[in-house]
Amino acid sequence: MKIKAPVSKNEQLDVSIMDLTYQGMGVAKVNDFPLFIENALPGEELTIQVTKVAKNYGFARAISWKSESPDRVKDVDKTYRQTGIAPLQHLAYPAQLKFKQHQIAELFNKAHQDVEVAPTLGMANPTQYRNKAQVPVRMIKGQLETGFYRQHSHDLIPLTDFYIQDPAIDAAIIKVRDLLRQFEIPAYNEISDKGVLRNIMVRRGYYSHEMMIVLISRTQKIPSQAQLVDQIHKALPEVTSIVLNVNAKKTNVIMGNVTRVLYGKPTIEDTLMGLTFAISARSFYQVNPQQTEKLYQMAIDKAGLTGEETVIDAYCGIGTISLALAKHAKQVYGVDIVPEAIEDAKVNAQKNHLTNVDFFVDKAEDQMIQWQAAGIKPDVVVVDPPRKGLAETLIESTAKMGPKKIVYVSCNPATLVRDVQLFQDRGYVIDGPIQPVDQFPQTPHVESVTVLVKK
Ligand code: SAH
């Protein structure tokens, strides 16, 4: 039976906002039919105009407000919402922290799980926190521009202040942009699949202030490459590494498979938890160093190590959690799918004189099966997977190895809930409150630490 939507495109109507989605959009319901509205907060009453009607939901835009939420704050710049850089900029920071706590609690409630979620650990200054930027480069009216895409599009909005990034990174992007203009290097054109420079990636050590610039190019070489590189490091004294990444494919994936060092070292160094880490262009490294230290400390405390334990760190990246745990454990094993990350991890173990850690390149789900087959008996397993969460085979082999404790660092509460249930089916229970840590202020992303123990 085909049910007709109770609203039609372009229709204007008055609604009350009842909820906020993971994407940070307000939700209103018209005869149970949900409408998603950007820049609308729970409790607000407003006039909206319907912009899109799908089968079971629609989108609308806010036109005017009849009442505003007490948690609403003035926009810093509406561009930050349009680009998705800061979709929650209009929500007061304490309310953002409550929203994140509530998101986790609600997902567990929907799954009929009674869990305690602690208040989200926030930042004293929830802006300018990112240690990494990845910006697209495009031609606009014949001039090379850097900025960010309008959400759900590839229209570049030129930007110079990215609000949530380290201001030294913003300044570096402007410098590189000006040099690209000066050397008349053409930006990549997605439609014709021509042009040269696609993206600029910048990483800066929070403590070390070492900076890496990655130029992502469609072509094997950039015109005036040597002069450009020379000018970049002269203009930016913090730069200790300039890397070319070649991505010749017509794709939305940012980096290609070939990286070449054009200046300095292939890595930058930074410290975290008093340990030194080398980080290469292709390796994952947490983007909010101040909060990462809180997150890792939490994971270490919750692991409750005495120095006698065998620990597995699955999805270990460059070994940050592994090495922080190695100081308190007998033996640590780490696994990650990215070969460069594991190379970094091995170097990082040596740099920090930690000899009780072994790193492996593999899919975590496959490596776990091998460890289980080899008879490894971990006391604690730490998992820190990407948004899609854990493979069921990994949960299966982990449960078979029977660790006393599993510390689950999650960046997506939806997959966390799913995976926790799969662990519960295999004899594990949640221990203590789930702890959200705000790694991404001004955005709806929710990071948390959950401990599971064997019943
Ligand atoms: N714990 C690290 C990294 C967490 S990010 C840190 O805090 O820095 C998630 C990591 O999972 C990334 O390093 C990514 O390369 C890795 N990854 C993604 N899919 C994987 C898989 N199937 N098996 C192993 N590692 C994977």
CATH-defined architecture of the largest domain = 3-Layer(aba) Sandwich
Give the CATH class of the largest domain.
Answer: Alpha Beta
Category by helix and strand content? alpha+beta
**Under CATH, the topology of the largest domain is which?**
Rossmann fold
What's the number of structural domains?
Answer: 3
Silhouette: globular
- The helix content is 25-40%
What bound compounds does this protein have?
Answer: S-adenosyl-L-homocysteine
The percent range for strand residues is 25-35%
Largest sheet report: 8 strands, mixed
CATH homologous superfamily descriptor of the largest domain:
Vaccinia Virus protein VP39
Please mark out the parts with pLDDT under 50 across 5 or more consecutive residues, or reply none: none
Work out the helix count.
Answer: 10
How much is the average pLDDT?
A: 96
**Distance, first to last CA:** 47 Å
Radius of gyration over alpha carbons? 24 Å
Family: Belongs to the class I-like SAM-binding methyltransferase superfamily. RNA M5U methyltransferase family.
Domain TRAM: 6-64
Active site: 411
Protein name: 23S rRNA (Uracil(1939)-C(5))-methyltransferase RlmD
